[in-house]
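Subject: sequence -> structure tokens, single chain

Hey, anyone have a minute? Need the predicted structure for the following. Not urgent.
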Amino acid sequence: MQMVVPLVASMVAPERRGQAIGDVMSGLMIGILVSRPAASLIADARNWRGYYVTSAILMIVLTAALARYLPTLKPAAATSYGALLRSFPRLLREEPVLRVRAWTAALVMASFTAFWAAIALRLPDAPFNLDARGIALFALIGVAGALATPLAGRWGDRGLARPMLIGSHLLIIASLALCAWAAMLESRIAALVVLSAGTILLDLGITTDQTLGRRAVNLLRPEARGRINGLFVALFFIGGAIGAAAASVAWSLGGWTMVCVVAGAFGVLGVVTDLATRTGSS
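Reply:
Had a minute. Here:
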């Protein structure tokens, strides 16, 4: 589905590109956030094979829909596969917008994976005391943050990308402070409410950065839009892998609080980047 973003971006006017990307990113992020609890609930109701059967059926339906509705587009440049691969380092070197926006996207993805990799370890304990089904249902809360993604794209089209990027990174820091505080509360209800609020704000900050970053890189060279998108995706997934690994180390050293500190530190690096450069924020 990562390929759909540049495809949609190529089909709309530049002044509406943020809106279109925001709509696609909203669906993409909702799918990511729903998949985990859906897998848990299906496996709980049936077994682990039930999830894979359901997933296979959904992929068949998706394939049929894409074959029916996706337009046929030809690449702007006729280049060999080897030449395309060799062009990646040059694109990264020549496009500062790609470098900066991929960097912040990697940072927020690191926060995302650090949080979600460790949250299931914390929720069974006091004060939350959630069982497996409760953890699955809690994961649905993050969808609320992804629902605001289309607004980020629209506001980016209106020239508000820079304040929104700064706000998204500050929101990540504040949300993780809330999540750390939630685990210190004695009341189960209060702890779940605060943690839920922090989770929603975290996903809102992350999807806002992702949407605005996608918008910025998809305004670059039309003839290289697919390659630029590929580099962007590869780099932010590297950030996600680093975040998951960092969460594992942080959990072993200081538990949930340390995980929140580490995830919040990625947000701090995002704010530092915002203050250091305006590249890709116009």
